[in-house]
Amino acid sequence: MSIDTLRLTAEQAKGMLDRGEVSGAELFAAYRAAIEERNGELNAYLTVTDDPGGDGIPIAIKDVISTKGVRTTAGSKILENYVPVFDSTVAARCKAHGLRLLGKTNTDEFAMGSSTENSAYGPSRNPWDPSRVPGGSGGGSAAAVASGMAPWALGSDTGGSIKQPAALCGNVGLRPTYGTVSRYGVVAFASSLDQVGPVAKTVRDCAFLYSVISGRDENDSTTVDVPPVVLPDGDDLKGLRIGVPRQLNDVEGIEPGVRDAVAAAIAQAESLGASVDTCELPLSVDYGLACYYLIAPAEASANLARYDGVRYGLRSEGKTFNEMVMATRHDGFGDEVKRRIMVGTYALSSGYYDAYYATAQKVRTVIKREHEALFERFDLLVSATSPTVAFPIGEKAADPLAMYLSDVLTIPSNMAGLPGLNIPCGLSDGLPVGLQLVGPQFGENTIFRAAHALEQAIGFDYVPARLR
Amino acid sequence: MAITREEVLHVARLARLELTDEEVARFQEQLAAILEAVSKVSELDLTGVPPTAHPLEIANAWREDEPRPCLSLDEAFANAPDRDGDFFRSPPA
Q1: What CATH superfamily is the domain B1-42?
Q2: Which residues of A are catalytic?
Q3: A321-344 tens-digit pLDDT
Q4: CA of A269: how far to CAs of A207, A235, A313, A406, A440, in Å?
């Protein structure tokens, strides 16, 4: 039986395996063939692994997630030869479920970026148009799923690194509620924001993979018990109250094609029975980016202090300990990582702490409260995920602040610890447009229900036009 | 918002980051622009607003304090750039 990895969902693959229409080895080989055909162009995988055997569904894992015995670089030169001696909890849970690792996917260095251009191993490319970025930081996972090189994948999301690449590559990506998925064994960027989540072709696949990886983990004391995941199968939205935050949907720089596709999806939600109303989120949108670009770099500057050339990773020459550490960090970190370490160190330094970091933490409370108030009236908030479709490689590479604006729509709900999911809702200039559905904490099932019904109604073809 | 060259060097020292002259000049300009942008947080009246350090209100996540298996020495040293017996070896402090 021929296997069309571009179209095949994980659920369909499971059906084929269960009915004995295909063996685990044949399925794995089909994805390997797709990787051999397309990875040279797209650079979605940094490491490709051999079939570990078994009859489970293959999976790709972002290279910030530790995999025992498989090189994990975090997209950084400083971890070029790092081979974890233990599995992250999410990798272990995938393994326990029989999922088989295809390889490790490209990412902006330490997940800091919105395009994968900050990877020490070269940018990934967008399967819909290889001259454009796949988004970031999880552009490798998104590109792998969109190009049939994996049925699904794991990503990680701090400011939008699952949702934004899913938007730019036309797949479904969930950033779960903070605390529902273990961070044990995940290379730390900003610990109060980092969250692992699934990337898939369909909402049902996304929900299923979330059920595999989520749940309390005694190795991560920030995890909590998670309500059972309900796989969505309904096609109406009766009784659902959807809020459309004006400031997200009218954000400066939003492309007309993005706005139109999102407006059409919102109209569709109404026709499926949802009640839709405009609402306001002024402070979260206005102050979200500034708040994020203080808190995330501050936490990063502390987390990345561990790369000292002593216990693991790169070591450069130095006559004294201090010289060795400073040379190692100079040689091992790329530009954006150095920039964020500098901003974070500055914001935490004596004399500036109150003005920057402590103030940002209070703004975070304001953002959290503004969202909480809306969820007294609404079950979901919807907007575009990214203000633009995929942009050309190199367009924003020289201007850090322009790149930061890519996450203006994903950051506010992330600061509040809320779950958010991207589904593709149409095309603009032949490139996917993403719709972001944000729920209250632990509102994943509501998100899945709405996203599934919308997905059926929209009927987006997730195979990139040039590969059909 | 202006940042001096000395401030850039001071922060780089705090962060244990060696920078070339070219990097110092570039970061001086870029940090100024970024700090100017993030200074926006100071526009709000935040009187009486408590800080949020963490999105969930979890306090004291306990577990039983029981010994469990851990990494062997060889595993713990597997990625070390330099090892001397049971020690990580580094240049002298």
Answers
A1: Glu-tRNAGln amidotransferase C subunit, N-terminal domain (1.10.20.60)
A2: 62, 137, 161
A3: 999 999 999 999 999 999 999 999
A4: 20, 10, 49, 26, 19
Unique residue bearing structure tokens 């850039």:
B8
For residue A72, the one-letter residue type is T
B residues 14-73 closer than 8 Å to A (CB): 14-20, 23, 27, 30-31, 33-35, 37-44, 46, 49-56, 58, 61, 63, 71
Query: What does the block give as tokens for A16?
Result: 């084929």
Interface contact A320-B93, CB threshold 8 A:
yes
C-beta of residue A414 within 8 angstroms of C-beta of residue A157? yes
Bridge partners of residue A381, in order along the sequence: A243, A438
Residue A1's pLDDT is 63
For residues B38 and A363, is the Cβ–Cβ distance under 8 A? no
Domains of chain A: 10-280+367-467 (3.90.1300.10)
**Both tokens assigned to B82:** 């330099």
pTM exceeds cut of 0.95:
yes
Which ipTM value was assigned to this complex?
0.96
Question: Checking phi first, is residue A119 left (phi over 0); if not, alpha (psi -120 to 50) or beta?
Answer: beta
